[in-house]
Amino acid sequence: MRRLESVAFGLTTLFLGAAGSARADDLLGQPTPGGFDLQPGASALKHQAIFFHNWILMPIITAVAVLVLTLLVICIVRFNAKSNPVPARWSHNTYVEILWTALPVLILTFIAIFSFKLLFAYHDMPPPDLTVKATGYQWYWGYEYPDQKIAEYDSNVLTADQAKAANEPYLLAADNALVVPVNKTVRVLVTGADVIHDFAVPAFGLKTDAVPGRVNETWFKAEKTGMYYGQCDQLCGVNHAFMPIMIKVVSQADFDAWVATKAPPPAAASSAPAASSAPAASSAPAGSSAPAASSAPAQPQKVAQASATAALH
Ligand SMILES: [Cu+2]
Questions:
Q1: pTM
Q2: How do residues 10-34 score in pLDDT, each as one tens digit?
Q3: What's the gap in Å between 232 CA and the centre of ligand 1?
Q4: What is the pLDDT of residue 266?
Q5: Contacts of residue 178, Cβ cutoff 8 Å, sequence gap at least 6
Q6: How far apart are CA 206 and CA 48, in angstroms?
């Protein structure tokens, strides 16, 4: 019933020219069950993309479809063998031929103006406030904050039970979110480690391929705090549907606090290896033993996450 109601709403808004106004009960940052239209936007790029789709493309598509359908119906009704037994023998009409060549060219040129405007908006990133690196793996995401010295951590899908317990949407929720501050330009460096993945978050209008051996760049500026969900958008293997993207948008203060928990202060970092490798502490420099100490616990964690993903099937 809800679906029918949504379709009716969509058609009504389309024909009344009100398309693009998201419904009040549409969920932000995730799909709405039975929803219609694009996900509500939470970034300038997405607002522009919604405008382009709802106000430029949809009216043109609708008008062209209606025109072609009307012409078809006229031909079928007026020029069938019964109502038009003696067909006309002429062919070619210069004016009509010029018209049906020039009109599509004009329509495509009109679309191109707005299309290139949007393309340039994606390309022209303002000076970024934060850089994060997102790496696609079979089948999870790894996030790294090079400027904050936060080493890459894994983001794995929650199982159905875990998602239910956490009151999060299953197949969209992950154990570790990508955390970013609100109203700040976030540059996302996207790459793949094994096969081609795709970093896609509808609410921010993001969709960038994660290609092994190559770093792609995209950006967004979240307008509201909250949780935003996306998925890998490239068929990347058997668990393609199980590598969601979860972005937690928080205030700058909360982000700073989170960074503090992820990146230990330099003093703590240099003292940690001394405690764990006491006998060698005098000879080995603190810097060299630090990576070994931090990478050691990561290994069993990765195995555990891999088996958790495998357990989904
Ligand atoms: Cu993927």
A1: 0.74
A2: 554 554 444 445 566 788 999 998 8
A3: 5
A4: 63
A5: 132, 134, 141, 143, 155, 245, 246, 247, 248
A6: 12
